[in-house]
Amino acid sequence: MRQRRRGSGAAFGLYGAAASILAKLERREGSLKTLVYGSPFPNTRLLFALVSETRRYSSVLDSIIDAAGLFRAEKKLQPHLAKVLIYDLLIGKGLRGGGRGKALVLKHHARLQAELARLKVQKKVSRNEDLLPPTGESDKALQMPRYVRVNLLKTCVDDVVDYFKRQGYSYQGKTASMEEAILSRKKFLLDLHLPDLLIFPPQTDLHENQLYQAGHIILQDKASCLPAFVLNPTPGSQVIDACAAPGNKTSQLAAIMKNKGQIFAFDLDAKRLATMSTMLVRAGVTCHQLAHQDFLATDPTDSKYSKVRYILLDPSCSGSGMVNRLAEEESTFPPMRLQALAGFQRKMLAHALQFPALQRLVYSTCSVHKEENEDVVQDVLEQEGSAFRLVEVLPSWTPRGLPVFPEAKCFLRASPEETLTNGFFVAVLERKHKACAASSAMLLSEAGSKLETNPKPATRNRKKKKQMAFPNK
Hints:
- It is built from 21 helices and 13 strands.
- By secondary structure, the protein is an alpha/beta fold.
- The strands form two sheets. Strands 6, 7, 8, 9, 10, 11, 12 and 13 form an eight-stranded mixed sheet that branches.
- The chain starts with 7 loop residues before the first helix and ends with a helix.
- The active site is at residue 366.
- This is 28S rRNA (cytosine-C(5))-methyltransferase.
C-alpha cells in the first residue's frame, strides 16, 4: 500500500474527511461527534473544529459561492469539499496542502474574496463573525464562556492566573454570579463553584496555548466538571470511571486524588481509549488502569475491585444537552431510541450499585430528558432502595431536579440559559449504612471541598512549579 505523503496529503485528507462528514450530517447518518470519532482521519480535534466552523458559517459560505458563480464555472467541484476549502481559505487558517479541489478553488480566490468583502459592506460589518445570524442553539454556543480547568497535578491556580496576566489578560477575581461570567475580550474570572476552574470569554481558542499543549490546563465545560467534583474521592482510594473516554473526568479524579490510589477506567471504543491514554499522559496522570471492556461485563465480586469505594457513571446518552449539536439532531429524538437508552442506563446504574465496597456513586448525563435522568435514578433506587440513598450536594446551585420526584432537591441540573454551560444532570448516591455525616457535611459546603482555591502547598512551591510550567518565561 502506498504511504500518504506528509503535509499536502494529510491536509487534503482533512478536507476530504470534513466534506464526507458534512454530507453524512445532511443525510442524518449520525451525530457530529460520532462521525468525527468514526473517521479515519487521525486528528479528531482538528477535524471537529473544521466541520463545526464550516457548519457555523454555512449560510455565509453559500451566499459567497452563489454570488461568485463557482459551481457554474467548476461543474466537477464537489459542493461539500468546496465549502470546507472555501471556509479555510477565506475565514479559517488558510488552505493547507494540495489536491485538485484546492487548485480549482484557488482559481477563483480573487472573486471569492471580493464577494466576502461585498457581503461585509452590504451587512455594514467589518468582522467575519458579525456576518453570522443569531440561530437559536448555535447562538447559545457562541455565548457560552470558555471554561479552563487548572490541572493541579502539574501546576496551581495562582501560577496559571499569573501566566495569563502576563499574556495580556485582565484577571477579575472570583465571580459572584453567573451573570458576571459573560466576559469581554482579554478578561477572565475564577469560577463561583469550582475552585480550580477559570472562565474566559466565549470563543476564546486556547488549543495552541503552551499550557494546554503541556497538560497544565484542561479545556472542559463547567457542567462536565461537576460529577468528579461532587464524587470527591479521597487520595489513596480506589475508583471506577465506568465510561471514561475521552478522559477529562478521569484526569480530574486523579487531580482530586493527588495521583494517589487507583482509577479503573473502562470504555468500549478502542479509538477513544487510545486518544484518552495520550491525554492522560499529557496531564501527568499515573494512578489509572485503562480497560478496553464493557463495564456491564465486569464482575462486582472480583477481588480486583474489592476495595472500590467510589464510582463515576457517565453512560452513553442522547447528548441532548450539548448546545453545539446541530439543529436537525436536537429538534426531535425518537421515543423508542430514548427508551432504549434509558434501559441501558438503568442496567449500568443497577450494575454499579452491586460493587460490595461501594460507598458513593455519581450518576451523570449530558441529557435534558427526564427519561434518562430522574426516571432512571428513581427506577433503580426502587430496586436498590434499601442499600442506597440520595445525597444533596452544592446547595447554592440552581437549577435542581425536575419536580417529579420527592427528592428533586438532591439532583443538579445545568442548562445554557441558567448556568451558561451545556445541559447536564448529576445525582449522588451513598450507601445508607455508611457513617457519612462528615462527608455529607463536607459536600454540602463548596468551601469544604478538598480542591483548593489558593492551595498553600502550591504557593510554597510556587517557584519550583513555575520553572516546570513555564520553562520559556
